[in-house]
Amino acid sequence: MTLADAVLAGDRLSLARLLTRVENETPEGLAALDELFPHTGRAHLIGITGAPGTGKSSLVNQIAIHFRKLDKKVAIVAVDPSSPFTGGAVLGDRVRMRDLSGDKGVFIRSMASRGSLGGLATATAGVVQVFDAAGFEIVLIETVGAGQSEVDIARLAHTTLVVEAPGLGDEIQAIKAGILEIADILVINKADRPGVESTERALKTMLELAHPVQKIFQHHGTYMAVQASAEEMAGMWMPIIQRTVATEGKGLPELLGSIQSHGEYLRQSGNWQKRERARLEAEFDALVQNELVARFRAGLTEKRLDETVDSIQKRQLSPREAVNLLLNGVGK
Amino acid sequence: MAERKIRVLVAKPGLDGHDRGAKVVARALRDAGMEVIYTGLRQTPEMIAEAALQEDVDVVGLSILSGAHMALAPRILELLKGNGQEHVLVFLGGIIPDEDIPALKEMGVAGVYGPGASTEQIVADIRSAVPA
Ligand SMILES: Nc1nc2c(ncn2[C@@H]2O[C@H](COP(=O)(O)OP(=O)(O)OP(=O)(O)O)[C@@H](O)[C@H]2O)c(=O)[nH]1
Ligand SMILES: [Mg+2]
Protein backbone atom coordinates (compact mmCIF):
# COMPACT_ATOMS: atom_id res chain seq x y z
CA MET A 1 0.00 0.00 0.00
CA THR A 2 1.41 3.40 -0.94
CA LEU A 3 1.30 6.41 1.36
CA ALA A 4 -1.36 7.91 -0.92
CA ASP A 5 -3.52 4.78 -0.55
CA ALA A 6 -3.22 4.96 3.21
CA VAL A 7 -4.23 8.63 3.11
CA LEU A 8 -7.29 7.80 1.02
CA ALA A 9 -8.14 5.10 3.54
CA GLY A 10 -8.14 7.74 6.28
CA ASP A 11 -4.91 6.97 8.12
CA ARG A 12 -3.87 10.09 10.01
CA LEU A 13 -0.21 9.24 10.55
CA SER A 14 0.22 8.54 6.83
CA LEU A 15 -1.49 11.84 6.10
CA ALA A 16 0.95 13.69 8.37
CA ARG A 17 3.94 11.94 6.80
CA LEU A 18 2.78 12.60 3.28
CA LEU A 19 2.29 16.29 4.09
CA THR A 20 5.96 16.44 5.11
CA ARG A 21 7.07 14.85 1.84
CA VAL A 22 4.89 17.20 -0.17
CA GLU A 23 6.21 20.15 1.80
CA ASN A 24 9.79 19.03 1.10
CA GLU A 25 8.91 18.35 -2.55
CA THR A 26 10.53 14.92 -2.43
CA PRO A 27 10.09 12.65 -5.47
CA GLU A 28 7.81 10.44 -3.34
CA GLY A 29 5.71 13.43 -2.33
CA LEU A 30 5.34 14.65 -5.89
CA ALA A 31 4.41 11.18 -7.12
CA ALA A 32 1.76 10.95 -4.39
CA LEU A 33 0.28 14.25 -5.56
CA ASP A 34 -0.15 12.74 -9.04
CA GLU A 35 -1.79 9.69 -7.51
CA LEU A 36 -4.16 11.79 -5.40
CA PHE A 37 -5.04 14.31 -8.09
CA PRO A 38 -8.17 12.49 -9.38
CA HIS A 39 -9.58 12.71 -5.84
CA THR A 40 -9.20 16.47 -5.58
CA GLY A 41 -11.58 19.29 -6.46
CA ARG A 42 -14.24 18.65 -3.84
CA ALA A 43 -13.22 20.78 -0.86
CA HIS A 44 -14.28 24.37 -0.23
CA LEU A 45 -10.98 26.23 0.15
CA ILE A 46 -11.26 29.26 2.41
CA GLY A 47 -8.40 31.74 2.75
CA ILE A 48 -7.92 33.94 5.82
CA THR A 49 -5.55 36.86 5.40
CA GLY A 50 -4.91 40.19 7.11
CA ALA A 51 -2.27 42.08 9.05
CA PRO A 52 -0.40 40.37 11.91
CA GLY A 53 -2.34 40.14 15.14
CA THR A 54 -5.76 40.98 13.70
CA GLY A 55 -7.08 37.66 15.00
CA LYS A 56 -6.78 35.32 12.02
CA SER A 57 -5.95 32.22 14.04
CA SER A 58 -8.66 32.96 16.60
CA LEU A 59 -11.15 33.27 13.74
CA VAL A 60 -9.96 30.07 12.11
CA ASN A 61 -10.54 28.32 15.43
CA GLN A 62 -14.12 29.63 15.57
CA ILE A 63 -14.90 28.97 11.91
CA ALA A 64 -13.71 25.39 12.36
CA ILE A 65 -15.92 24.93 15.43
CA HIS A 66 -18.94 26.08 13.45
CA PHE A 67 -18.26 23.83 10.47
CA ARG A 68 -17.83 20.93 12.88
CA LYS A 69 -21.35 21.60 14.16
CA LEU A 70 -22.48 20.95 10.58
CA ASP A 71 -20.47 17.73 10.70
CA LYS A 72 -17.99 18.86 8.04
CA LYS A 73 -14.44 17.56 8.22
CA VAL A 74 -12.08 20.53 8.57
CA ALA A 75 -8.41 20.83 7.69
CA ILE A 76 -6.37 23.88 8.66
CA VAL A 77 -3.15 25.01 7.01
CA ALA A 78 -1.54 27.81 9.00
CA VAL A 79 1.44 29.56 7.40
CA ASP A 80 3.90 31.62 9.44
CA PRO A 81 7.08 33.32 8.22
CA SER A 82 10.51 31.70 8.12
CA SER A 83 13.42 33.79 9.31
CA PRO A 84 15.24 35.05 6.22
CA PHE A 85 18.53 34.81 8.10
CA THR A 86 18.47 31.36 9.64
CA GLY A 87 15.70 29.62 7.67
CA GLY A 88 14.14 28.62 10.98
CA ALA A 89 10.64 29.51 12.15
CA VAL A 90 8.43 29.63 15.20
CA LEU A 91 4.96 28.55 14.13
CA GLY A 92 2.54 29.79 16.77
CA ASP A 93 -0.92 29.68 15.23
CA ARG A 94 -1.92 26.50 17.09
CA VAL A 95 -1.88 28.43 20.36
CA ARG A 96 -5.25 29.96 19.38
CA MET A 97 -6.74 26.68 18.19
CA ARG A 98 -6.74 24.62 21.36
CA ASP A 99 -10.54 24.27 21.30
CA LEU A 100 -10.11 21.96 18.32
CA SER A 101 -7.89 19.38 19.94
CA GLY A 102 -9.38 16.01 20.66
CA ASP A 103 -11.63 16.20 17.60
CA LYS A 104 -10.70 13.64 14.95
CA GLY A 105 -12.71 15.59 12.39
CA VAL A 106 -10.10 18.35 12.48
CA PHE A 107 -6.50 18.25 11.27
CA ILE A 108 -4.19 21.23 11.80
CA ARG A 109 -0.91 21.63 9.98
CA SER A 110 1.55 24.49 10.52
CA MET A 111 3.80 25.50 7.64
CA ALA A 112 6.77 27.84 7.44
CA SER A 113 6.82 30.16 4.44
CA ARG A 114 10.37 28.99 3.56
CA GLY A 115 11.38 32.09 1.67
CA SER A 116 8.22 32.46 -0.36
CA LEU A 117 6.97 36.04 -0.33
CA GLY A 118 3.31 35.89 -1.32
CA GLY A 119 1.90 34.97 2.11
CA LEU A 120 1.90 31.23 1.43
CA ALA A 121 4.68 28.67 1.13
CA THR A 122 5.51 27.24 -2.29
CA ALA A 123 4.16 23.87 -1.24
CA THR A 124 0.94 25.16 0.34
CA ALA A 125 -1.12 24.35 -2.75
CA GLY A 126 0.17 20.78 -2.66
CA VAL A 127 -0.61 20.40 1.03
CA VAL A 128 -4.14 21.69 0.38
CA GLN A 129 -4.55 19.15 -2.42
CA VAL A 130 -3.64 16.31 -0.08
CA PHE A 131 -6.28 17.44 2.44
CA ASP A 132 -8.83 17.77 -0.36
CA ALA A 133 -8.12 14.23 -1.58
CA ALA A 134 -8.20 12.92 1.99
CA GLY A 135 -11.84 13.96 2.21
CA PHE A 136 -11.69 17.18 4.20
CA GLU A 137 -14.70 19.14 3.01
CA ILE A 138 -13.45 22.45 4.35
CA VAL A 139 -9.84 23.61 4.12
CA LEU A 140 -9.02 26.80 6.02
CA ILE A 141 -5.77 28.46 4.92
CA GLU A 142 -4.27 31.12 7.19
CA THR A 143 -1.65 33.25 5.42
CA VAL A 144 1.47 34.84 6.87
CA GLY A 145 -0.40 38.13 6.94
CA ALA A 146 2.39 40.44 5.89
CA GLY A 147 -0.41 42.58 4.47
CA GLN A 148 1.47 43.20 1.23
CA SER A 149 0.88 41.11 -1.84
CA GLU A 150 -1.50 38.46 -0.68
CA VAL A 151 -2.78 37.67 -4.13
CA ASP A 152 -1.58 34.07 -3.91
CA ILE A 153 -4.31 33.23 -1.45
CA ALA A 154 -7.03 34.74 -3.65
CA ARG A 155 -5.81 32.56 -6.47
CA LEU A 156 -5.74 29.39 -4.38
CA ALA A 157 -8.92 29.82 -2.32
CA HIS A 158 -12.54 29.81 -3.43
CA THR A 159 -13.49 32.27 -0.73
CA THR A 160 -11.08 34.86 0.68
CA LEU A 161 -11.60 36.53 4.05
CA VAL A 162 -9.62 39.68 4.73
CA VAL A 163 -9.39 40.38 8.45
CA GLU A 164 -9.08 43.91 9.77
CA ALA A 165 -9.17 45.17 13.34
CA PRO A 166 -10.14 48.61 14.66
CA GLY A 167 -7.41 51.05 15.48
CA LEU A 168 -4.66 49.60 13.37
CA GLY A 169 -4.64 52.68 11.20
CA ASP A 170 -3.73 50.53 8.23
CA GLU A 171 -6.75 51.22 6.07
CA ILE A 172 -4.78 53.37 3.70
CA GLN A 173 -2.11 50.74 3.44
CA ALA A 174 -4.76 48.16 2.68
CA ILE A 175 -5.95 50.13 -0.31
CA LYS A 176 -2.43 50.42 -1.66
CA ALA A 177 -1.84 46.75 -1.32
CA GLY A 178 -5.03 46.05 -3.21
CA ILE A 179 -6.07 43.83 -0.36
CA LEU A 180 -9.68 44.95 -0.54
CA GLU A 181 -9.90 43.72 -4.10
CA ILE A 182 -9.16 40.17 -3.08
CA ALA A 183 -11.76 40.16 -0.27
CA ASP A 184 -14.95 38.21 -0.74
CA ILE A 185 -15.73 38.85 2.89
CA LEU A 186 -14.21 41.62 4.95
CA VAL A 187 -14.09 40.74 8.62
CA ILE A 188 -13.78 43.47 11.20
CA ASN A 189 -12.57 41.40 14.10
CA LYS A 190 -12.04 42.71 17.63
CA ALA A 191 -15.38 44.47 17.31
CA ASP A 192 -15.32 44.74 21.11
CA ARG A 193 -12.62 47.38 20.72
CA PRO A 194 -13.22 51.11 20.33
CA GLY A 195 -13.14 52.48 16.80
CA VAL A 196 -15.25 49.80 15.10
CA GLU A 197 -17.67 52.34 13.69
CA SER A 198 -15.02 54.45 12.02
CA THR A 199 -13.18 51.38 10.72
CA GLU A 200 -16.39 50.07 9.21
CA ARG A 201 -17.20 53.44 7.65
CA ALA A 202 -13.71 53.69 6.13
CA LEU A 203 -13.85 50.18 4.75
CA LYS A 204 -17.31 50.70 3.29
CA THR A 205 -16.19 53.78 1.42
CA MET A 206 -13.16 52.03 0.06
CA LEU A 207 -15.15 49.00 -0.97
CA GLU A 208 -17.51 51.18 -2.93
CA LEU A 209 -14.53 52.65 -4.73
CA ALA A 210 -12.89 49.33 -5.37
CA HIS A 211 -15.95 47.34 -6.37
CA PRO A 212 -17.61 45.89 -8.22
CA VAL A 213 -14.75 44.26 -10.03
CA GLN A 214 -14.58 41.16 -12.13
CA LYS A 215 -11.80 38.99 -10.81
CA ILE A 216 -9.84 37.51 -13.62
CA PHE A 217 -6.91 35.22 -13.13
CA GLN A 218 -4.90 35.55 -16.30
CA HIS A 219 -2.65 33.13 -18.05
CA HIS A 220 0.77 32.85 -16.47
CA GLY A 221 -0.81 33.32 -13.09
CA THR A 222 -1.11 37.09 -13.14
CA TYR A 223 -4.15 38.53 -11.51
CA MET A 224 -6.32 41.35 -12.70
CA ALA A 225 -9.28 43.18 -11.31
CA VAL A 226 -11.32 44.72 -14.09
CA GLN A 227 -14.06 47.28 -13.62
CA ALA A 228 -17.30 45.53 -14.43
CA SER A 229 -19.83 46.69 -17.01
CA ALA A 230 -23.40 47.38 -15.95
CA GLU A 231 -24.73 44.02 -17.08
CA GLU A 232 -21.88 42.15 -15.51
CA MET A 233 -22.60 43.92 -12.26
CA ALA A 234 -26.00 42.35 -11.90
CA GLY A 235 -25.41 38.98 -10.31
CA MET A 236 -21.92 39.84 -9.15
CA TRP A 237 -20.65 39.30 -5.65
CA MET A 238 -20.31 42.41 -3.55
CA PRO A 239 -17.96 41.84 -0.61
CA ILE A 240 -19.76 41.55 2.69
CA ILE A 241 -18.55 43.36 5.79
CA GLN A 242 -18.89 41.25 8.91
CA ARG A 243 -18.10 42.20 12.50
CA THR A 244 -16.78 39.54 14.86
CA VAL A 245 -15.28 39.05 18.29
CA ALA A 246 -13.30 35.89 17.69
CA THR A 247 -12.34 35.42 21.32
CA GLU A 248 -16.02 35.18 22.29
CA GLY A 249 -17.46 33.67 19.13
CA LYS A 250 -19.60 36.74 18.48
CA GLY A 251 -20.73 37.26 14.89
CA LEU A 252 -19.59 33.77 13.95
CA PRO A 253 -22.96 32.33 12.88
CA GLU A 254 -23.36 35.34 10.58
CA LEU A 255 -19.83 34.94 9.23
CA LEU A 256 -20.42 31.27 8.57
CA GLY A 257 -23.64 32.17 6.75
CA SER A 258 -21.72 34.59 4.52
CA ILE A 259 -19.05 31.99 3.75
CA GLN A 260 -21.71 29.52 2.74
CA SER A 261 -23.58 32.08 0.63
CA HIS A 262 -20.36 32.86 -1.16
CA GLY A 263 -19.84 29.17 -1.87
CA GLU A 264 -23.36 28.93 -3.27
CA TYR A 265 -22.87 32.07 -5.31
CA LEU A 266 -19.70 30.63 -6.87
CA ARG A 267 -21.44 27.39 -7.76
CA GLN A 268 -24.57 28.97 -9.19
CA SER A 269 -22.78 31.65 -11.18
CA GLY A 270 -20.35 29.19 -12.69
CA ASN A 271 -17.45 31.06 -11.10
CA TRP A 272 -16.42 28.02 -9.06
CA GLN A 273 -15.51 26.27 -12.32
CA LYS A 274 -14.02 29.38 -13.87
CA ARG A 275 -11.74 30.07 -10.95
CA GLU A 276 -10.69 26.47 -10.73
CA ARG A 277 -9.94 26.32 -14.42
CA ALA A 278 -7.84 29.49 -14.29
CA ARG A 279 -5.90 28.15 -11.32
CA LEU A 280 -5.25 24.78 -12.93
CA GLU A 281 -4.18 26.43 -16.14
CA ALA A 282 -1.76 28.69 -14.29
CA GLU A 283 -0.35 25.69 -12.45
CA PHE A 284 0.00 23.75 -15.69
CA ASP A 285 1.63 26.73 -17.37
CA ALA A 286 4.19 27.16 -14.61
CA LEU A 287 5.11 23.48 -14.81
CA VAL A 288 5.47 23.61 -18.59
CA GLN A 289 7.80 26.56 -18.24
CA ASN A 290 9.95 24.80 -15.65
CA GLU A 291 10.11 21.66 -17.72
CA LEU A 292 10.96 23.44 -20.96
CA VAL A 293 13.66 25.51 -19.33
CA ALA A 294 15.13 22.38 -17.75
CA ARG A 295 15.21 20.58 -21.13
CA PHE A 296 16.70 23.53 -22.89
CA ARG A 297 19.43 23.77 -20.29
CA ALA A 298 20.08 20.03 -20.42
CA GLY A 299 20.85 20.26 -24.14
CA LEU A 300 23.31 23.08 -23.66
CA THR A 301 26.92 22.75 -22.54
CA GLU A 302 28.28 25.02 -19.87
CA LYS A 303 30.80 26.27 -22.47
CA ARG A 304 28.19 27.16 -25.06
CA LEU A 305 26.15 28.98 -22.44
CA ASP A 306 29.22 30.94 -21.32
CA GLU A 307 30.11 31.92 -24.87
CA THR A 308 26.58 33.06 -25.52
CA VAL A 309 26.45 35.20 -22.41
CA ASP A 310 29.86 36.61 -23.42
CA SER A 311 28.50 37.64 -26.81
CA ILE A 312 25.54 39.27 -25.12
CA GLN A 313 27.79 41.17 -22.75
CA LYS A 314 29.98 42.32 -25.67
CA ARG A 315 26.82 43.56 -27.32
CA GLN A 316 27.40 41.27 -30.31
CA LEU A 317 23.99 39.67 -29.72
CA SER A 318 20.92 40.98 -28.01
CA PRO A 319 19.43 38.57 -25.46
CA ARG A 320 16.53 37.95 -27.80
CA GLU A 321 18.84 37.18 -30.73
CA ALA A 322 20.81 34.82 -28.53
CA VAL A 323 17.68 32.88 -27.64
CA ASN A 324 16.69 32.70 -31.27
CA LEU A 325 20.14 31.43 -32.18
CA LEU A 326 20.20 28.72 -29.54
CA LEU A 327 16.61 27.56 -29.96
CA ASN A 328 16.10 27.93 -33.68
CA GLY A 329 19.64 28.02 -35.02
CA VAL A 330 18.92 31.39 -36.56
CA GLY A 331 21.72 33.87 -36.05
CA LYS A 332 22.93 37.02 -37.50
CA MET B 1 13.56 19.09 -3.72
CA ALA B 2 13.48 21.38 -0.72
CA GLU B 3 15.93 21.05 2.14
CA ARG B 4 14.62 18.91 4.96
CA LYS B 5 14.03 20.89 8.14
CA ILE B 6 14.08 19.51 11.65
CA ARG B 7 10.59 20.01 13.07
CA VAL B 8 10.20 20.40 16.82
CA LEU B 9 7.06 20.66 18.91
CA VAL B 10 7.63 22.78 21.99
CA ALA B 11 4.93 22.15 24.57
CA LYS B 12 4.18 23.01 28.14
CA PRO B 13 2.19 20.25 29.81
CA GLY B 14 0.60 20.64 33.20
CA LEU B 15 -0.99 23.51 35.03
CA ASP B 16 2.03 25.48 36.18
CA GLY B 17 2.48 29.16 35.42
CA HIS B 18 4.73 30.72 32.83
CA ASP B 19 6.29 29.63 29.56
CA ARG B 20 9.32 31.92 29.50
CA GLY B 21 11.81 29.06 29.39
CA ALA B 22 9.88 27.29 26.64
CA LYS B 23 9.88 30.44 24.54
CA VAL B 24 13.62 30.96 24.97
CA VAL B 25 14.24 27.42 23.77
CA ALA B 26 11.78 27.85 20.88
CA ARG B 27 13.64 30.94 19.67
CA ALA B 28 17.03 29.30 20.04
CA LEU B 29 15.89 26.35 17.92
CA ARG B 30 14.51 28.72 15.30
CA ASP B 31 17.82 30.57 15.24
CA ALA B 32 19.48 27.22 14.65
CA GLY B 33 17.35 26.85 11.49
CA MET B 34 14.70 24.50 12.89
CA GLU B 35 10.95 24.80 12.46
CA VAL B 36 9.36 25.04 15.87
CA ILE B 37 5.67 24.47 16.45
CA TYR B 38 4.73 26.30 19.59
CA THR B 39 1.54 25.23 21.34
CA GLY B 40 1.30 27.39 24.46
CA LEU B 41 0.45 26.75 28.07
CA ARG B 42 -1.53 24.03 29.84
CA GLN B 43 -1.35 21.25 27.29
CA THR B 44 -2.61 17.82 28.23
CA PRO B 45 -0.54 14.79 27.18
CA GLU B 46 -3.31 13.96 24.69
CA MET B 47 -3.11 17.42 23.12
CA ILE B 48 0.67 17.13 22.83
CA ALA B 49 0.59 13.71 21.21
CA GLU B 50 -2.10 14.81 18.77
CA ALA B 51 -0.15 17.92 17.76
CA ALA B 52 3.02 15.85 17.35
CA LEU B 53 1.15 13.54 15.01
CA GLN B 54 -0.49 16.23 12.89
CA GLU B 55 2.75 18.16 12.59
CA ASP B 56 4.86 15.05 11.90
CA VAL B 57 7.62 16.34 14.15
CA ASP B 58 11.02 14.79 14.71
CA VAL B 59 11.29 16.06 18.27
CA VAL B 60 8.99 16.94 21.16
CA GLY B 61 10.45 19.35 23.70
CA LEU B 62 8.61 19.49 27.01
CA SER B 63 8.95 22.17 29.62
CA ILE B 64 7.81 21.00 33.05
CA LEU B 65 8.21 23.11 36.17
CA SER B 66 5.49 21.59 38.29
CA GLY B 67 7.34 18.51 39.46
CA ALA B 68 4.88 16.27 37.63
CA HIS B 69 7.48 15.04 35.12
CA MET B 70 7.46 11.47 36.45
CA ALA B 71 3.77 11.23 35.58
CA LEU B 72 3.67 13.37 32.42
CA ALA B 73 6.74 12.09 30.57
CA PRO B 74 5.79 8.38 30.52
CA ARG B 75 2.22 9.23 29.57
CA ILE B 76 3.35 11.30 26.59
CA LEU B 77 5.84 8.64 25.49
CA GLU B 78 3.11 6.02 25.67
CA LEU B 79 0.69 8.13 23.60
CA LEU B 80 3.34 8.82 20.96
CA LYS B 81 4.05 5.11 20.72
CA GLY B 82 0.33 4.36 20.49
CA ASN B 83 0.13 6.70 17.50
CA GLY B 84 3.00 4.97 15.72
CA GLN B 85 5.45 7.76 16.55
CA GLU B 86 7.95 5.80 18.63
CA HIS B 87 10.72 7.38 16.52
CA VAL B 88 9.94 10.87 17.89
CA LEU B 89 12.64 12.06 20.29
CA VAL B 90 11.41 13.52 23.57
CA PHE B 91 13.50 16.13 25.34
CA LEU B 92 12.64 17.45 28.77
CA GLY B 93 13.50 20.77 30.36
CA GLY B 94 12.57 22.43 33.62
CA ILE B 95 13.15 21.70 37.27
CA ILE B 96 14.09 18.04 37.31
CA PRO B 97 15.90 16.55 40.35
CA ASP B 98 19.10 14.71 39.39
CA GLU B 99 17.91 11.49 40.97
CA ASP B 100 14.97 11.31 38.53
CA ILE B 101 17.14 11.51 35.42
CA PRO B 102 18.17 7.83 35.18
CA ALA B 103 14.55 6.70 35.43
CA LEU B 104 13.47 9.22 32.79
CA LYS B 105 16.19 8.06 30.41
CA GLU B 106 15.21 4.49 31.11
CA MET B 107 11.64 5.15 29.99
CA GLY B 108 12.91 6.71 26.76
CA VAL B 109 13.44 10.43 27.34
CA ALA B 110 16.30 11.42 25.01
CA GLY B 111 17.66 14.31 27.05
CA VAL B 112 17.02 16.21 30.29
CA TYR B 113 17.96 19.87 30.85
CA GLY B 114 17.89 21.89 34.04
CA PRO B 115 17.44 25.65 34.34
CA GLY B 116 21.17 26.23 33.79
CA ALA B 117 21.44 24.27 30.53
CA SER B 118 22.75 26.18 27.53
CA THR B 119 20.55 26.40 24.45
CA GLU B 120 23.66 25.62 22.36
CA GLN B 121 23.83 22.26 24.07
CA ILE B 122 20.16 21.54 23.37
CA VAL B 123 20.61 22.49 19.71
CA ALA B 124 23.70 20.32 19.38
CA ASP B 125 22.00 17.34 21.05
CA ILE B 126 18.93 17.58 18.79
CA ARG B 127 21.11 17.86 15.68
CA SER B 128 23.09 14.77 16.53
CA ALA B 129 20.05 12.74 17.62
CA VAL B 130 17.79 13.40 14.63
CA PRO B 131 18.70 11.18 11.69
CA ALA B 132 19.68 13.27 8.66
N1 LIG C 1 -10.24 41.96 22.16
C1 LIG C 1 -10.14 41.01 21.25
N2 LIG C 1 -8.98 40.33 21.11
C2 LIG C 1 -8.90 39.39 20.14
C3 LIG C 1 -9.99 39.09 19.28
N3 LIG C 1 -9.59 38.13 18.44
C4 LIG C 1 -8.31 37.83 18.74
N4 LIG C 1 -7.90 38.58 19.78
C5 LIG C 1 -6.56 38.57 20.40
O1 LIG C 1 -5.63 39.12 19.49
C6 LIG C 1 -4.36 38.48 19.62
C7 LIG C 1 -3.90 37.95 18.28
O2 LIG C 1 -4.79 36.94 17.84
P1 LIG C 1 -4.40 35.85 16.78
O3 LIG C 1 -5.62 35.04 16.51
O4 LIG C 1 -3.17 35.14 17.19
O5 LIG C 1 -4.06 36.80 15.54
P2 LIG C 1 -3.38 36.42 14.13
O6 LIG C 1 -3.90 37.38 13.14
O7 LIG C 1 -3.55 34.98 13.86
O8 LIG C 1 -1.86 36.72 14.43
P3 LIG C 1 -0.59 36.30 13.55
O9 LIG C 1 -0.79 34.89 13.08
O10 LIG C 1 0.55 36.45 14.49
O11 LIG C 1 -0.54 37.28 12.41
C8 LIG C 1 -4.56 37.39 20.67
O12 LIG C 1 -4.12 37.88 21.90
C9 LIG C 1 -6.05 37.16 20.67
O13 LIG C 1 -6.52 36.67 21.91
C10 LIG C 1 -11.21 39.82 19.48
O14 LIG C 1 -12.19 39.64 18.75
N5 LIG C 1 -11.22 40.76 20.46
MG1 LIG D 1 -2.11 33.49 13.46
Topology of this protein?
The complex is a heterodimer of chains A (332) and B (132).
Chain A: H1 3-8, H2 12-23, H3 27-36, E1 44-50, H4 56-69, E2 74-80, E3 89-91, E4 106-112, H5 124-133, E5 138-142, H6 151-156, E6 159-164, H7 171-176, E7 185-188, H8 196-210, E8 213-217, E9 223-227, H9 230-233, E10 240-243, H10 252-269, H11 271-298, H12 302-313, H13 319-328
Chain B: E1 7-11, H1 20-31, E2 35-38, H2 45-54, E3 59-64, H3 69-82, E4 89-94, H4 101-107, E5 111-113, H5 119-129
Parallel strand pairs in B: 1-2, 1-3, 3-4, 4-5
The site of guanosine-5'-triphosphate (GTP) has 17 residues of chain A, from α4.
Can you give a write-up of this model?
- The complex is a heterodimer of chains A (332) and B (132).
- Chain A has 13 helices and 10 strands.
- By secondary structure, chain A is of the alpha/beta class.
- In chain A, a hairpin with a 5-residue loop joins strand 8 and strand 9 (223-227).
- In chain A, helix 2 packs across helix 3, helix 2 runs antiparallel to helix 5 (124-133) and helix 4 crosses helix 10 (252-269).
- Chain B is built from 5 helices and 5 strands.
- Chain B has a 5-stranded parallel β-sheet with strand order 2-1-3-4-5, with helices on both faces.
- Chain B is globular and about 45 Å long.
- Classes of the chains: A alpha/beta (332), B alpha/beta (132).
- Chain A binds chain B through residues 12-13, 16-17, 19-20, 23-27, 82-83, 86-92, 94-95, 98, 101-102, 107-110, 112, 114, 122-123, and chain B through 1-5, 7, 26-27, 29-40, 43, 46-47, 50-51, 53-56, 83-85.
- Bound molecules: guanosine-5'-triphosphate and magnesium ion.
- The site of guanosine-5'-triphosphate has 17 residues of chain A, from helix 4.
- Residues 56-57, 93, 142 of chain A line the site of magnesium ion (MG).
Distance between the termini of chain B: 15 Å
The total count of strands of chain A amounts to: 10
Strand line-up across the major sheet of chain A: 4-2-5-1-6-7-10
Instruction: Tell me about the largest β-sheet of chain A.
Output: 7 strands, parallel
**Cα-atom Rg of chain A, whole angstroms?**
22 Å
Strand content of chain B: 15-25%
Q: Helicity range of the residues of chain B?
A: 40-55%
**How much of the polypeptide of chain A forms β-strand, as a percent range?**
15-25%
The largest sheet of chain B has its strands arranged as 2-1-3-4-5
The CATH architecture category of chain B equals 3-Layer(aba) Sandwich
Oligomeric grouping of the chains: heterodimer
Largest interface: A-B, 33 and 32 residues
Biggest β-sheet strands, sense, barrel of chain B: 5 strands, parallel
CATH class of the largest domain in chain A: Alpha Beta
- CATH architecture label of the largest domain in chain A: 3-Layer(aba) Sandwich
Helix count, DSSP H or I runs of 4 or more residues of chain A: 13
Order of helices and strands of chain B: EHEHEHEHEH
Q: CATH homologous superfamily name of the largest domain in chain A? A: P-loop containing nucleotide triphosphate hydrolases
Mean pLDDT of chain B: 92
